[in-house]
Amino acid sequence: MTNMDSVSVRVFSLNCWGIRYLSKYCPQRYAMIGEMLCKEQHDIVLLQEVWSEKDYLFLKKKLASCHPHSHYFRSGVIGSGLAIFSKHRIRDTFLYRYSLNGYPYMAHHGDWFGGKAVGMAILNLGSLTANVYVTHLHAEYSREKDSYLPHRVVQAWELQQFIRHTSTGADVVILGGDLNMHPQDLGNRLLRAYNGLQDSYLETAKFDGCENGMTLIVDNPFISKKELVPFEKGIRIDYILFKGSSKADVHCDSMSTTKGSVPNHPFPYSDHEALTAELRLEPRTPAETGSDRQSKNKDSATGKLAELVDIVTEARTEVKVGLHCAERMRYTAARTGVMGLALLFLELVIAAVPYLALGAEQPFPRTSFYLLAVLCFAMLLTTSMLYIFYTMELKSLQEAEDQMRLGIGSLQEKLKGFRLAQLHNPSRMPPEVQEPGAFEPEE
Amino acid sequence: MTNMDSVSVRVFSLNCWGIRYLSKYCPQRYAMIGEMLCKEQHDIVLLQEVWSEKDYLFLKKKLASCHPHSHYFRSGVIGSGLAIFSKHRIRDTFLYRYSLNGYPYMAHHGDWFGGKAVGMAILNLGSLTANVYVTHLHAEYSREKDSYLPHRVVQAWELQQFIRHTSTGADVVILGGDLNMHPQDLGNRLLRAYNGLQDSYLETAKFDGCENGMTLIVDNPFISKKELVPFEKGIRIDYILFKGSSKADVHCDSMSTTKGSVPNHPFPYSDHEALTAELRLEPRTPAETGSDRQSKNKDSATGKLAELVDIVTEARTEVKVGLHCAERMRYTAARTGVMGLALLFLELVIAAVPYLALGAEQPFPRTSFYLLAVLCFAMLLTTSMLYIFYTMELKSLQEAEDQMRLGIGSLQEKLKGFRLAQLHNPSRMPPEVQEPGAFEPEE
């Protein structure tokens, strides 16, 4: 702890829309991104949808002098698409793969093929240890009929679990990425409330960027108006979140987004807007720790805890909806499979007739016979694969639901203790609830 | 911190060998296990290979009064097989799925189909917070030609990463399970050295059980001698590991294993032996923390850190071997696929001859034509699936290798700082290296 001065950290986050040969002007945009990052020299750069390792290597080479430290998170078939570049030495990295990520047969949505995950990098910022997370959750294709909602809620749950359990030793937590959730969406509230993460757009002292901090806007030439309906102007789904600790306070001094175009360039960096947040980390002296915060936040803590219980309960309900849906789908797959098997059996019986009753004519035309057999086999194969897939989906949903049930129980227990303590001795709080918005069991 | 007295905790671990209809005497053995657990009343029961949820529910019902708290970790198609039962309230659970777990086409080994994972449960033991982990790594089928070694090393790496990053806030860490590694195997050394975990068999004051603490023994009637060659007497692959913290010391007062049979029963609980460790947790007063330990362990710290660098380097080499192997396999799959495609093309050309040169005879007998086409399609399908699988394997191996490279860099940096500090001021250590065997970057 040599340096107790405040540290200023500039964090950048961008969904690069980097599908080679499919995303428009991919190489040109990477060149633009590389140039801009070289010029801007952010401390931490968090990128999503860098689907091709070649593009990562291009950036790595380009940023070698300004961002000597980097990590590309590999997972799944295509990769996680996540990358981090840093001015500061990366001490350690770790990757958590979400258990659910859409359906393989929804190939046109493509999410399943990318190994959606959350990447963690641990680095030193001045005297402080920062846990930096980068992630990209499952896209929302329809606001009205969002069949992926349970998956996204489970991803948000796993994200908050991963951050909460891995950041106990961190002085500062920073999370950047494309959450694919509106600010007040369930998963977002879950993430912020459970971990006490703060939204740099809401906390910033100074803001320069799109209206309402939107990151998917109609002014972006890569965006079609249809995609945004019913949010004509745009939506905010990319975030830089942060959190301090007993060792450091974090403030957001300024925050900005790109605005759908880049001066002197014919098109923007991506279909998403880029985010930049300037965070000020203020190491706390041991004396500051504890008492002042405790008294300051005493009143709101019970309320926040109760709110958190409500949010987790809501999430659990959503996961239960997903469970019922997956169960129904698995049942349908099983029924269809059994029908295919019955059909195959019937066909075999009919085919066997001439052999059993010697001399009888083969009742089937040969071609239809083969065609039907192939159909039956295809049906059986498809339904068995679907059955296996839905079984895995069910297991993951059940696991999340179970974790949530436990979590709610612990929170309620804490709330009870908390209310009792308030009742008996309103001036003193039990130590585990001193910090509202950060209800880690480890505290 | 109401209670500063030491707490005694009895931990139980067993690989239940619970494959319904395949494992011998499965229901009878579960009944025996349930009875024994009811009688023994361990504080924490860690079970592996509870493949059927029905069996978990049977145990849950049976143990409802003595172990009111439990969690079944669900993952993959069949499940993770992991379960925890506890006398003490489970506050929180979390699951990490290993990125690699064998090959789906090695169906007779079956590991791939179980969603191998590490489960975490957080509970209070007296005034202390304990992070309890249960896991089961990929089996070793051949000691001489162990093609799964890179997978197991990556699993051990991910296990140590998961424990290290999630246990920063824990006062006590307990890990139980079937690691499928001998005591001096690479993965085991990696796990123990990086996290400073201690082996209860090696640390126990009193031991009662099989020779050398073996858990897979020839005296067990479910074990065939062939499986154990060249270790005629048996091997030790199940463990209960533990670790204290600055808030608590942990000692192992006694440790025992079953010995291949159960009195008054015709067969043992499982093909593995069961482990029981009695741990004594001693909360430390704040005054104790620091100085005494620091001086006691000063000399060995540099050595241990250097040893850790060696171990991680060795692990990295093993992962690189796996990388080369996976690359070769992927190349073979691609080549075979291309051959299948060429064959299909050739066939189509030959089949097209009669249509192009009108009047010419169909050169192919009909049946062989269809058979060959089916063969080509099967070849294409299989090789594409293999190609995708090997690509995923490669990504996971590369990710682990990258994490290891970073880890080695950080450790070497620490070692350098450490040696410099020793050189300049041999009586004082830099604070981050006060605790040998626990080189968490978060410290």
Automatic annotation (TrEMBL), chains A, B:
Q: Which GO terms describe its cellular component?
A: membrane
The Endonuclease/exonuclease/phosphatase domain extends over: 13-272
Tell me yes or no: is Transmembrane among this UniProt entry's keywords.
yes
Topology class, membrane: Multi-pass membrane protein
Pfam families reported for this sequence: Exo_endo_phos
User: Which cofactors does this gene product need?
Assistant: Mg(2+)
What top-tier enzyme class does this entry carry? Answer: hydrolase
Keyword Hydrolase found: yes
Which positions, given as ranges, span the membrane?
Answer: 338-357, 369-390
Q: Which residues form the signal peptide?
A: none
Question: Which GO molecular function annotations are given, in alphabetical order?
Answer: metal ion binding; sphingomyelin phosphodiesterase activity
Q: Name one GO biological process term.
A: sphingolipid metabolic process
InterPro entries named in the record? Endo/exonu/phosph_ase_sf, Endo/exonuclease/phosphatase, Sph/SMPD2-like
Where in the cell is the protein located? Membrane
Pathway in which the depicted protein is active: Sphingolipid metabolism; Lipid metabolism; sphingolipid metabolism
Enumerate the UniProt keywords alphabetically: Hydrolase, Lipid metabolism, Magnesium, Membrane, Metal-binding, Sphingolipid metabolism, Transmembrane, Transmembrane helix
Entry superkingdom: Eukaryota
Extract the PANTHER family matched here.
PHOSPHODIESTERASE, PUTATIVE-RELATED, SPHINGOMYELINASE FAMILY MEMBER
Protein family per UniProt: Belongs to the neutral sphingomyelinase family.
User: What name appears for this protein in its UniProt entry?
Assistant: Sphingomyelin phosphodiesterase 2
